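Pasting as-is:
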Amino acid sequence: MTNASVAPVVDKPADETPSGQFVTFPGSPFELYQPYPPAGDQPVAIDQLVEGVENGEVFQTLLGVTGSGKTYTMANVIARLGRPAIVFAPNKTLAAQLYSEFREFFPKNAVEYFVSYYDY
């Protein structure tokens, strides 16, 4: 799938920041709040991850340094695919951070998180 075939529908939120907007993709139940458009390596990563899922790839890895926008990239992938997702975090602190960020990216959709209190 190429960017040309994925035309997002843009809707400005009532309390928008100057560059923020809601974006929906055809067939997707998710409304993604984009405070800014994907930049740098993100557009290519989003395209490749979406293509991988659509081609049935079972394992994919998104690599990036701290602060490179991995969570934002995954939010865009989830919105483009229009499928529910489970995102794992290695600890409670990061789980809470992911939950908070996904709530910001998907304020009109259900976002939940679960923390296990068992040590494995």
